[in-house]
Amino acid sequence: MNHTQGMLAPESLKGKTIIVTGGGTGLGKSMASYFSELGANLVITSRKIEVLQETAKEIAAKSGCPVHCVACDVREYEQVERVIAEAKEQFGSVDVLLNNAAGNFISPTERLSHRAFDTVVDIVLKGSYNFTLALGKDWIENKQQGNILSIVTTYAWTGSGYVVPSACAKSGVLAMTRSLAVEWAKYGIRSNAIAPGPFPTEGAWDRLLPGDLKKKYDPAKKVPVGRVGDHQELANLAAYLVSDFSAYINGEVITIDGGEWLKGAGEFNQLDAIPEELWDAMEMGRKKGGSKLKMMWLYFKGMRKLKF
Ligand code: HXC
Ligand code: NAP
What we know:
It contains twelve helices and seven strands. The chain has helices at 26-37, 49-63, 77-91, 114-141, 155-158, 164-183, 202-208, 213-216, 231-242, 260-265, 276-286, 292-305, and strands at 17-21, 41-46, 67-71, 96-99, 146-151, 189-196, 253-256.
């Protein structure tokens, strides 16, 4: 058994109806696919109906469970309400919302138009609160329990240059997650988030690392465990959080990034670059009675190898 395999027992999500925004591609598709494999009724939604139909066919053929798709722009509240209405028509009720749809691009902030800023914030933040509000109202009115999971990023709390609209929006989604975890717990509605590190997807990676940037900037190099994420390990975490096994987890954001953001945060983490010879020289320097010559030799050898 390893991280590339499914983790939960078969039928762990049987009978649950789950809406996945941005469920036609990338990580949304991978999580949706695993939910379906575990017996869930799926509703996937995004703007491009052809992509959704293709994905729905593929997932249903693999799992044998029903997958419904509805085209919707998450920025438009009426369209969001229509998705929820269709989900209820199809499956009776909705149990879980996965806020996964996002828009993003890299750019120096001063080069962005205000419309570009709006576009990313509207998809990520407004899209997530549109779905959360519409479904939350429905759950509370019908005295039904609910579970909201939102996909954020680690820069939701660190911030990040060159993706400022996305950082603003994701931190807003995280604030909503923690706020509603408290406010709506009395209605039986839980709210959690996942902050993924780098996971290869066409949508994100072609936009964030266009052209030669991909060759020059290898995301795996920033990750202490030395690799990027595998979709199945994210799907495992998401399936656990939308399942009843995680009933006592509420208001949490779980990072799944191989230690990436902490590597950037720790004051001395870049000392990874110090070669053994330099550590040896420093150790000899602080102990009494060592050979000065050997210490100097190790020091110069280490300094020659040192690359920051
Ligand atoms: C600067 C840009 C731009 C770019 C668009 N705009 N792309 N500005 N750099 N690369 C500007 C346009 O000029 C326009 O402003 C405004 O943004 C709206 O552009 P549209 O193309 O009309 O928007 P729309 O059709 O709604 O498309 C949304 C989109 C697009 C965000 C621009 O990229 C998209 O559909 N993305 C969805 C998928 C996605 O982004 N996935 C990545 C998620 S990854 P003006 O002023 O000209 O009108 C992610 C990972 C995070 O979040 C962490 C990784 C580790
Ligand atoms: P992706 O494949 O581009 O997924 C984004 C999805 O959002 C697409 O299916 C897109 O479908 C949908 N979408 C965009 N705008 C929409 C709108 N206005 N209305 C409805 N749907 C819309 O990228 P991904 O990498 O899988 O990203 C999935 C999630 O993971 C995002 O929340 C992202 O921020 C997060 N994330 C990813 C990484 C990573 O390394 N990949 C890291 C951290 C966080 P349509 O174009 O059909 O609308």
